[in-house]
Amino acid sequence: MALSKRRRTQVLRVVQYVVLVAVVVALALLIDWQQVRRGFLDADAAARLFPGVILTGLKNTVIYAALGFAVGLALGLVLALMRMSSVGPYRWLATAYIEFFRGVPALLVFIAFGFGVPLAFQLRFDTYSTVALSLGLVGAAYMAETIRAGIQAVPKGQVEAARSLGMPAGMALFTIVIPQAFRIILPPLTNELILLTKDSSLVYLLGVARDEYELTKIGREALNVSPNLTPILVAGLCYLIITIPLSQLSRYLERRTGGKRISSPESAGLEVKA
Fold first, then answer.
1. Which of 14, 21, 190, 210 has its CA 20 to 30 A from that of 6?
2. What region, left, alpha or beta, does residue 229 occupy, with left being phi > 0 and alpha being psi -120 to 50 degrees?
3. Beta bridge partners of 272
4. Which residues pair with residue 85 across a beta bridge?
5. Tens-digit pLDDT profile for residues 104-132
6. Which of 191, 211, 215 has its CA nearest to residue 203?
7. Which pLDDT tens digit goes with each residue over 162-213?
8. Is residue 262 a contact partner of residue 144, using CB atoms and an 8 Å limit?
9. Reported pTM
10. Cβ burial 114-143 (10 Å sphere, 16+ → b, else e)
């Protein structure tokens, strides 16, 4: 007797669940849990990380990510406006910057500002300035495209209505268009903050002082004296303390904005006079 389409879907789903449970049970039986405990769940090694992993590592990771995000957001807004400008050189400079920093690994940017620039120009940056510049310059390239898409997603009628009331183009842009654009792009900007939080792990390259350690540096240092990966697991869990609430915030903001997604930068044609 032929099954209906709905019945076939239900049977297929049950089969998938059975297979999944069988795989999980097989893995649970095959894994050497004593070895897992020795390799990843050493309570003594985890206890030695506290309270430093929270009071120093977690705190500095949040500070580094916030500094990079602030620099990236400010520079990204400028780049987005330059990218949309009617002045050719502005567009070319912004495009070159965005393509360069989107194509270069953040690791190289950290090395450049941590070692290359100080050696070449005899300049000295403290750790916070180096991190803010490195994360900010890379983040700005991505945020610029996000902001540009958000601006272009605002209906052009908003600008036309403001101009018909005699409002200057610049005032219409900063008082009407950009505030609406930021409401649209809050979820993707939150995702950018998550990426910067993870990229802050590259600070370990800079040879920072102990009170400037972030989570990855603390985990690596503890790994040198610990015969297992427990310190890395603890550091990873601390990253989740930051990133999971940010992910939930991103979903909440997306619901608040009605689930509206920004269009691609090429799909709208709002032009900003520079």
1. 21
2. alpha
3. 85
4. 272
5. 999 999 999 999 998 898 888 899 999 99
6. 215
7. 888 888 888 888 898 999 999 899 999 999 999 999 999 999 888 888 999 9
8. no
9. 0.84
10. beebeeeeeeebebeebbbbbbbbbbbbbb
